[in-house]
Amino acid sequence: MPKKTKVEIASDIKNLNHHCPEDFVVGYQKKxxxxxxxxxxxxxxxxxxxxxxxxxxxxxxxxxxxxxxxxAGSLIVYDNDKNILTYQNTFVYDSNNKIILxxxxxxxxxxxxxxxxxxxxxxxxxAYLKGIPIIVEDLKNSIYSVxxxxxxxxxxxxxxxxxxLKVDNEIPAVLEIVKSKDKEPLTKDDLETIMIIxxxxxxxxxxxxxxxxxxxxxxxxxxxxxxxxxEFEDEIEKSKRYNRVFSLVMFDIDDFKQINDRYGHIAGxxxxxxxxxxxxxxxxxxxxxxxxxxxxxxxxxxxxxxxENAHKVSMRLLETVRNTPVNNGExxxxxxxxxxxxxFPKDGDETYFLFNHADEALYESKRKGKNRITIYNPSxx
Length: 381
Prior knowledge:
It contains twelve helices and 13 strands. The chain is an alpha+beta fold.
């Protein structure tokens, strides 16, 4: 059989569209669009840094909305402490399937963030409770009320989908998608598409969770020393390449053994978590690199920061820690830190020298009476 030309193939498609029922053509186009979106998502996940879970959550919602030409969607996240669901990562699209970014939408976000959904309540609360996807093709004639997303964003909806995301046999969030009355209602085919996206997302989030477990200290939530060494080596290479400085700060809790002896090891763990919370509030998120080095020893890398500027930040941490008591149930106690700082490349251009010099500065702080910071100075050895 002779191979057809592009013109003949185009003519065949045109004739097919002419003779096929309109709903068949529309259905084919919807399927084609959904497949393209799913392919785009798989490509996005392939290049996504697994640590960028916030970007992933944003894109889950956008891919889901666009794949079924919905009107809005949101990730409804489970709050373990309060045992409720709350809205996050919400997007609204117009009748032409373009994302709306005007101020009126943004003004509604803060109101939506205050909404609390109880487990079993409404469409998404029920999907979370049962752990199954739910589709409502006609909200007017269903047992479910209009989702808060639609009410607050002033979307006149006719249908909705809620799909739980499952990670490590738990449900951290529910993906909620709604469609307005000026569009065709959501269908079971749309539900299948959303479930494919949800499964992609769940698998990626599970991998991200396993990765985060592998690189973080389980008690404090800071990086562990193995991952810190990798970041340390990377920072040295980057600083050499761009001819910039960075500082390494090492510190520990003064008289930590006495805390364990006097109050018990549970109190010691609380002191470590308390210090970790203070560190997280002090350093620059996604810039500075903090880790529990071992026991009560901690380290922080301050990229593109001189020892003098690292001293200023470390002083804020020192003051926060010593002025905020550790809550040990009925009793409270205060802790202090001894800290040492070395600077790249002045105090060394390899991990060994920078660690040793920061450690020497730390013990100089101990020698001078603790509860203080020392910048490495070879003349004081």
